[in-house]
Amino acid sequence: MIAHRRGIALLLGALTLAAACGGSGDGTTTPPTIGTSETTLPVIEETTTTGGDEAGGSDDDATTTVDDADPTGTTIAEVSLPSDTSSGRPLDGTTTGSEWLPLLDTFDGYVAERDIGAAVLAVSVDGEPVATYALGWRDLARTEALTVDTPFRLASVTKPYTRALALELATLELVELDEPVFCTPTRRDGCLVDVVDTAAAAGREVREEMGAITLRHLIDHTAGFDSGATLDPMFTPLLVGADLGLDGLPTEAETAAWTLGEPLTHTPGETYAYSNVGYLAAGLALENATGDDYLSLLRRHLDVGDDLALGTTRPAARAAGEVEYACDEGLAIDLFDPAGSDVCWADGGFNLDAMTAHGRLVAPASEVLDFLRLRCIDGLANVGSCDAWHDGSLSGTYTVARNYGRVDYVVLFNQRRDDAHPGFGYTDVVPTLDAAIGEIVEPFAG
After folding, report:
1. From residue 409, how far is each of 296, 390, 421 by CA, in Å?
2. Both 320 and 335 in a single domain?
3. How far apart are CA 342 and CA 349, in angstroms?
4. Cβ(377)–Cβ(401) under 8 Å?
5. Number of domains in the chain
6. What is the pLDDT of residues 202-222, one digit of tens each?
């Protein structure tokens, strides 16, 4: 069993994590429909858009030079940005024209008002990048300036990648969206995820109702799991491990085995309920169907770049240059060393290494923008009419991937705590940036 220094407090710490981290947010409110040519994930309706509106700043420090002209006679301008923003934050970035400088002021104002240490915004119009701004510092000591190439955890912005991958593999007839995913004690053939023996070894049993769940259910968040109504096993690994009689943290397959032994909250296919473990299972299904690992599948079938990687929890194991994540939500029991000292949540309070298909990806903003320029949040082709967004929220991380008609943009922050708003995350950044972008370009023109 897991060694622990506080007895039952160890498990209570895991329960606290479920409340504190809660998985990742979603900028959608109804289940998507697969198989149509239209984006079916609606945007969260916000009643207020605070932050950024009053941001100051001037264009005086930005120099515009005429670089070339296209055959139609339109001037192509290259803008040299100042080294610091109006709020005094270090600035790295590029933009194609001075018309995008007011967006920098808005973003800077939003970030400064909330004192976000590291923030990146990347924007494209009609599939072409027009502005990328990196504000602040890579490290928590605020001594090293952030760059546009700095990798961040994407948290649940991983999910649109998984969804797009599932749809692509279905198009290639490598998976079936409407076939059962889970084996059960009475049906071990024709299924993609078989954890029956794993569950049985721990004295548990995969419930027969799980045999009705399809891959479509998993990626639509309609499988019947509901992290809002029950414990989210992705954020209670100590509890899951203890229940399974493990000596350490559960693997993804072991987490699936534990989950499949619990009753479903909803009948599969009937109710939308956001689920991290559903996407964990979808990732396992795609790997088992193809015999390949998740990241290799993304690179082969979605043509993602080498800068997209799988993150890891412990700071010492992270890729060189990855941003440091804020420690502003208190300390947590270190899941990897429960008998040791407490750590920041982002550094060991959850197990990122076991969140492959629902929250583990790490990338610079440009990689995510490349994905959005080709695909909508629902995984279908981006033809310039998508209107949806998906966010990601982990302690030390808040991210947004946004399709806004002709415009696509990505936001990466190294913190998510906003004392001015309930819950975790900066959901008001979307209407704030939408409004600022709408002053520059018409997202749905033509």
Report:
1. 25, 11, 23
2. yes
3. 9
4. yes
5. 2
6. 999 999 999 999 999 999 999
